[in-house]
Write a structure and sequence with these properties.
Layout lengths: L8 E8 L7 H9 L5 E9 L5 E8 L19 E11 L7 E8 L5 H18 L4 E7 L5 E8 L1 H6 L9 H7 L8 E5 L3 H7 L8
């Protein structure tokens, strides 16, 4: 079922790590295991920059303090409060891969970008019901939007529906509207969590 909005507070945290600094995202994931206010939290690593990460989290309304004071934001994007535009979820969540793509629209082009992404989501759900699919945009920086997609690869391949999740055609349509290439991330859990929960944790989204 497609839902236009959510009662949960969603946050995207973009940051970078280096050899001298600990991965703050891992510390937050470990802390969240004991925090009942955290509904979901997952870490992603950039496909083009191994030092760049994204941390996506979902909190109830009492979880106002998402990140510790002074946490490094790793760039001008920093922390985003997300507004869900489209969401689809299978219950229970059964996924073998989880990917995050961040889009930045040119000035004045945020609405056409979100509209194109919403059409992509609706078409993907019609062709093949994914494990999870979320389209959201940033409240602080409306030109920033994201797609979060979880799929069970064996089912997608078996039904020949992988084209439903290919961004190739979408990127051709969006290129004139974007301020630069989209940032692509893949799910990157801590080793201990992956060994217990499998490829994608049921608490990832």
């Amino acid at each position: 079922m497609l839902r236009p909005r959510s009662v949960w507070l969603r946050v995207l945290y973009l940051y970078e790590v280096n050899a001298e600094a600990p991965d703050s995202g891992l510390a937050l994931i470990e802390d969240s295991l004991l925090d009942s206010r955290v509904h979901a939290r997952s870490r992603f690593r950039s496909l083009v920059d191994d030092a760049r990460f994204a941390l996506y989290s979902v909190h109830n309304t009492e979880g106002a303090a998402m990140f510790p004071p002074g946490a490094p934001l790793g760039g001008p994007e920093g922390e985003h409060t997300l507004i869900a535009v489209r969401e689809f979820r299978r219950v229970p969540l059964d996924a073998s891969s989880l990917a995050l793509t961040v889009f930045t629209a040119r000035p004045g082009q945020a609405v056409p970008v979100v509209a194109a992404l919403a059409h992509f989501v609706e078409r993907a759900v019609d062709l093949y019901q994914p494990a999870y699919l979320l389209l959201a945009h940033s409240m602080e920086r409306p030109r920033t939007s994201l797609l979060l997609m979880a799929v069970q690869d064996s089912l997608a391949l078996g039904s020949a529906a992988t084209a439903a999740f290919s961004l190739d055609g979408l990127l051709g349509e969006l290129e004139p509207l974007l301020d630069g290439p989209p940032e692509s991330y893949l799910y990157c859990p801590e080793t201990a969590t992956a060994s217990i929960a499998g490829p994608v944790s049921p608490y990832a989204v």
